[in-house]
Amino acid sequence: MNVSVVGSGYVGTSVAACLADLGHDVVAIDIDADIVERINAGESPIHEPGLPELIEEHAGGRLRATTEHAALRDTDLTFVAMQTPSREDGSIDLSVVEAGMRDVGETLAEKEGYHLVVVKSTVLPGMTEERLIPVLEEASGKTEGEEFGVAVNPEFQSQGSAVDDFMNPDKLVFGATDDRAYGLLRDLYAPLVEQADARAEVVETGLREGAMIKYANNVFLAAKISTINEIANVCKEYGVDSYEVSDAIGLDERIGASFLRSGAGWGGSCFPKDTDALRAAAREKEYEPVLLDAVVTVNDRQPVRMVDFLERHVDVEGRRVAVLGLAFKPETDDIRGSRSKLAIEALEQRGAQVVAFDPTEAADHMAEQYPDVKYVESAAAALDGAHGALVMTDWPEFAALDAEFDAMADPVVVDGRRIVERREGIVYEGLTW
Ligand SMILES: NC(=O)c1ccc[n+]([C@@H]2O[C@H](COP(=O)([O-])OP(=O)(O)OC[C@H]3O[C@@H](n4cnc5c(N)ncnc54)[C@H](O)[C@@H]3O)[C@@H](O)[C@H]2O)c1
Ligand SMILES: O=c1ccn([C@@H]2O[C@H](COP(=O)(O)OP(=O)(O)O[C@H]3O[C@H](CO)[C@@H](O)[C@H](O)[C@H]3O)[C@@H](O)[C@H]2O)c(=O)[nH]1
């Protein structure tokens, strides 16, 4: 099929490259000329395992990029994968997607034949029908359900494993109202569903349900982590190893073993934003989301607890403290919602001199927001002379650190991800164990 993807960021680029790999002809459309240039040069614009290889293989062949929205006229189906950031009050800011939809609609005005617009961006129930379809209809002068269709097809890929998650999904959610829309999505994803070891269940549902499934999925996982963090915080008070507890309760199929790693908490571009958006949406309907509020409170306390534990051993005021890991998780350079930000803020408030390291470009992104932090080129350089270290991200290279701790002025290590080996010569503080 001929497919266009409008918005070539973390999601759009991996979706475009994976669809090309599945045999479709794909054009990625972005207003950022640098992204377009990089894709056309066969390079990945983001740090994502497996993606550079796919782009290198398909760029100039089944994958191309452009800044011209007109390119979508030559395709059967357009994914919309633009950002949906949070406003100050946590509610979702739909303005970028609305503006992008206007571009799509204006282009569709001059297209002959049926076209399907598929919302990949995470949007709340009702937003597609009440805000995006009207923009498309007005800009195109056409009627939804007749000359064009609209579906939601939320994306469940995680950063760091986006390619693998896209190629081996546990479910495909098609939210639509129109038989032609379901049919096109079935055809598009057929190579995934028909592959030998496919495990994907196809869920065909309505637009509102499709949108809500995405929020429910993310918010449930965030709540699962906050629940184990709360339990694990109590475990620490009683001298109980919370990881042994997690391993055991994970054996209960009703609980499941994944997402039970307690520690510094959840960050990222999605869990914080989607949890806030659902809380704000609930309040708009005058429903108080008390559990979801607590899920966030527990999460935001974890990095501050780490600084509290450090201060049980050293007074950080005026002292150098190492922060290891700035990306919100390993295998990405994304700092959105990173727990390291809250740790840095707490340290700076208490007068510490923060020295930070991350193996990716995450440090450059962080420097724009936290210019007073000193960013260094290795974990060893961060630890050298430090009066304490906070381990914020579970990068494998931090798990391999050993003699580097001996260069600390006070070898107090507060491990937010349980990856550092306890040993003589280190004052080790687990966050929840
Ligand atoms: N990041 C993830 O892992 C992930 C996973 C699942 C779902 N989502 C959801 O997918 C959506 C996109 O997220 P992201 O992380 O890829 O965002 P992103 O900010 O990385 O990418 C968005 C891209 O859209 C482009 N863009 C903006 N306006 C445009 C326009 N008018 N025309 C063409 N391009 C335009 C931007 O230049 C940018 O490159 C969000 O709703 C997010 O919640 C993200
Ligand atoms: O047991 C765990 C598991 C994860 N985390 C943290 O949770 C955050 C999110 O991790 P993860 O879910 O792996 O990363 P994301 O790339 O943000 O992926 C989530 O958000 C995406 C965007 O919506 C969804 O598509 C994915 O399904 C969903 O897992 C990270 O800070 C992790 O360190 C924990 O603290 N403990």
UniProtKB/TrEMBL annotation:
Active site per database record: C270
Keyword check for NAD: yes
Pathway field: Nucleotide-sugar biosynthesis; UDP-alpha-D-glucuronate biosynthesis; UDP-alpha-D-glucuronate from UDP-alpha-D-glucose: step 1/1
Catalytic reaction(s) noted: UDP-alpha-D-glucose + 2 NAD(+) + H2O = UDP-alpha-D-glucuronate + 2 NADH + 3 H(+)
Name recorded for this polypeptide: UDP-glucose 6-dehydrogenase
Organism (species): Halomarina rubra
InterPro entries: 6-PGluconate_DH-like_C_sf (IPR008927), NAD(P)-bd_dom_sf (IPR036291), UDP-Glc/GDP-Man (IPR017476), UDP-Glc/GDP-Man_DH_C (IPR014027), UDP-Glc/GDP-Man_DH_C_sf (IPR036220), UDP-Glc/GDP-Man_DH_dimer (IPR014026), UDP-Glc/GDP-Man_DH_N (IPR001732), UDPGDh_AglM (IPR054886)
EC number: 1.1.1.22
PANTHER family: UDP-GLUCOSE 6-DEHYDROGENASE TUAD
Single GO MF descriptor: UDP-glucose 6-dehydrogenase activity
Positions bound to substrate: K214, F259, L260, R261, S262, G263, G267, K329
Domain spans labelled UDP-glucose/GDP-mannose dehydrogenase C-terminal: 322-422
UniProt similarity note: Belongs to the UDP-glucose/GDP-mannose dehydrogenase family.
NCBIfam families linked to this entry: NDP-sugDHase, UDPGDh_AglM
One Pfam family in the UniProt entry: UDPG_MGDP_dh_C
Keywords: NAD, Oxidoreductase
